[in-house]
Structures are given as structure tokens and as C-alpha cells.
Amino acid sequence: MTDYDFLRDGLTAGRLVPLLGPGALAGARDPQTGDALPADNRSLILAMNQGREMMPRLMVEFSRAAQHLEQRRGQAAVTRFLTGLYSRPWTRAPLHDVLAQLAPPWVVDLNRDHQLLDSYGGQEHLLVKGCARTMGSGLRYRLYRGHCGQYEEIDDSSAIDPAWPVLFKPLGCSLPEPSFIASDADYVDYLTELMGGFALPPALKTYRQQKQYLLMGVPLGRDTERMLVTEISYGAAQPRGWVFLEQPSPKERRYCARMSLEIIEQPLNSFTRFLQANPGSARACLS
Fold this sequence. Notes:
Blueprint: H1 4-13, E1 16-20, H2 41-48, H3 62-73, H4 75-87, H5 94-102, E2 106-109, H6 115-119, E3 125-130, E4 141-147, E5 150-154, E6 166-169, E7 172-173, E8 179-180, H7 184-196, H8 202-207, E9 212-216, H9 223-232, E10 241-244, H10 250-259, E11 261-264, H11 268-277
Parallel strand pairs: 1-2, 1-9, 2-6, 3-6, 9-10, 10-11
Antiparallel strand pairs: 3-4, 4-5, 7-8
Helix pairs in contact: 2-3, 3-4, 5-11, 7-9
Protein name: SIR2 family protein
Organism: Aestuariirhabdus litorea
């Protein structure tokens, strides 16, 4: 049995970086209808297509379906859908509530909602948003200083306080202005630049060295997620970390063995319940 106290203490001390996937949003619901917040590939596709199934080849992955919509109606149509989806009121996911209490100094969130931003709204923080198909500098990120729900865009030459928690949203979000990595074309551009080192600010590249990661709600059965995890955790300590996979597939087991990720074959909500019953109080900062 994995030592949950060890994981909690690593999160609060900053040694262990939480890396959140769709499963981290379990329990977030529409307060009126009780419908779950669409987070995984299938639920996002159905939400985008008014609850109707799309062609089988498009139902495999949200990025394919988003590319299909983009080709028919333009990139703005995908942005409108995602912005409208996350602008609706949703209840808080229990995992987000307990992470807000722990306040890890660096969080990687592969979702596109803004519950993570709400968790840190009461304190100054640095928001790093992934972006794709941009011109100019070639960088595939934008930086914002956030406080009390307000965001100010800054650049790499601006003074970044090392005490600020860092929220890294590789796939974008609707705040402070909507921008997302969603379609196949977005992913090709973003992942190419992530591998080339142009999708992370220099300070974060330095800070991530020799860190370990705790993957929560991140499926590893598809290339997209595996590539994101591999590149984001570049320079990690060994072992690279831990991942909650209740029923890992052979492909997931092979990837985790190659990446030195220890599989925790327990439901993620078991860790959430542990954190609810055993909250931590330590806080760390980016340094």
C-alpha cells in the first residue's frame, strides 16, 4: 500500500508536483441538472456535438473531433464551445478543494477549466498558459500574474516573485481570456515546441529539475497524454513519481515501467478521502 502521508507531505513541501488529468474533476457537476462536468474525451465530444455521437473515427479522441469542427466552422467555433462550457457554473471537484488546502507551489493541470485558478484566487500566483500557432517570438506560452481574480500579462523579463505558486495549464483555459490547445493542429504545433523547449519559461525549466510527479486522473493509454507527461516531466528525479491507475492496461504498464512511474492501483478518490480526513498545513514556494 502506498504511503499516503508521504505523498501528501511531498505535495505540500514542493518535492512532488501534482499533475492533474480529467479524473481530477470527478464530482464537479451542474448544480441545476446534476450533470457531470465533461472532462474526458467522450464526454467532451458529446457536449460539443449536442449530445450526439460523431463518426467512430472522431469519437476516439477529443482533438480529432475538435479538428473536424475547426475544418467545418473555423477555430473560433472550438473556442466558443470550450469558453461556453467552462463559463457555466459547476460545483467544485472534491480533489480541487483538498489541493486548495495543501496549496502546492507548482501544479500542472491538463484540463481546460478554471477550478485550479479559483483555488489560488486569494493569493498572488503565476499562471502559465500553453498556446499554439502563434507568430512572433515563437514561444508557446503566455505568462500572467494573478491575484484576487484579476490577471495581468507579464513577460519573461518581468520580476517574478519566487514566492508565487505556479499554475501551469498546458492546454489553456478561458481565463483571463479564452485560448486553448484543442484540435489536432493545436497539439502538433504545441507538442513540437514543447519538445523544442519553447513551451516553458526558463525559470520553470530550472525549477522542475529533480522533481517528482504525482499523476492524478491522467489516463496514459493514448500517445497525446504520454507525450505531454514525458515532456513536462523532463529532468525529473528517479523514480519519476507515482500515478493513480486503478486498472492499468498493458500499454500503460509498459509506459510507466519505461518512465519509472510507480502505479498505485487504487481509485483516486481513496487519496481524496485521505486528504479530506488528514489535511496538511505545510506550504512551500518556488525557488
